[in-house]
Amino acid sequence: MKIQCENIDDLLLEGDHFSMQTAANHAKGCPACAEKIASWNEISSVAQGMQTTWQNDMLWPRIERSIRAEKRHKQSKLWQIAAAVVMLSGLGIFAWRANETLRTDQFNQRILQESAVDEVEKAEKAHLAAIDQLEKSAQPKLDEPSTPLLVSYKEKLMLLDDAIAECQANIDRNRENAHLRKQLLAIYSEKQRTLREVLREGNHVSNQ
Amino acid sequence: MHGVAPAVSLASPVITTETPNRPTRTATDDDLRLARACASGDTGVFEEIYRQHGDRMKSIAYNHLGNVSDAEDAVQETFLKVHRAASTYNGESAFGTWLYRVLINTCYDALRRRQRRIQESPIDDVITTERAVSSVDDAKRMTLRKMLNELPEQRRSVFLLFEVEGLSHAEIAQTLNITEGNSKWILFATKKQLQEKWKTQS
Fold it and tell me: What CATH superfamily classification does B29-201 receive?
């Protein structure tokens, strides 16, 4: 194969046995290329002599120790992660159980509260029925009040009825409000007292 | 890492003409077995790898770092990195090739650390203290080492792996994560560059 000087670089780039042989054949008749190839080969030859090794019996034990230490570190890290997972799971279960207990307690308390409210309402209804009876008895005297005092009792009872209606409306919006219930009870008591006074005043007038 | 060389005499690394085991081009079942065992920290397997690749690893590290102590540190660190990263080995390249890639990256890291240390002695000084020039061949090797130290990392690695360690371009391509053609071209350009300097040095 006939090659030119400018092809030498291509052969050196290829670098395989055949290319180098072709380059060497060309160099036989070309001193410039021969010099180039000689220094090229010299570099390779010197480089081949740079492969270096040495004996150190301590190196492997040193590496082994560091791998074992690394493995221990890795394992302890895994244990730490496992412990953290267990701890977090425990905390999660505890929190869930606590939440469940709280919800059950709240449910039970609500039932108790509702039954207490029912009791209060039952008592209120009985109280109301008694007042209604009293009101029926006093009604004729209030329809035609014979004295100024009975007129003022009538006005007072009208005011008390308005207050009862308002208080009842508020209670309907919030059945468990104990303060409103006390207030309603006080108004009913006042109405009851007033009705008794109406009846007493009526009897007093008729006796005269 | 250990910065001090062990008590065993390391003063004169021996130039060898033996060809250590070459990494195969593709991963085998054996490579995958090795990687799995490395991930689990099986020191028996690590020892097997050390026996098989240790000499070449030391040689690559020495030629990159220029002294025995740093080379041994790099080999040790490589084994630790392999232990940490073996589970990520996917068998795309031979285990040996992957091992050399980890080693070369470790050497690059060490060189960068060294460059950051202002008080660090120049690499050729370190070599000079460890190896006395005793022959013409030694002088030539010293000259070549000095010229190689001035090269960029990748060029130096391609040259060392091909010319010194005898790896093929395919193996170099896998090790350095470049193409085979690129490896050929880098080697050619590097040798051209060295040839110019070689002439003036001579």
Answer: PhyR, sigma-like (SL) domain (1.20.140.160)
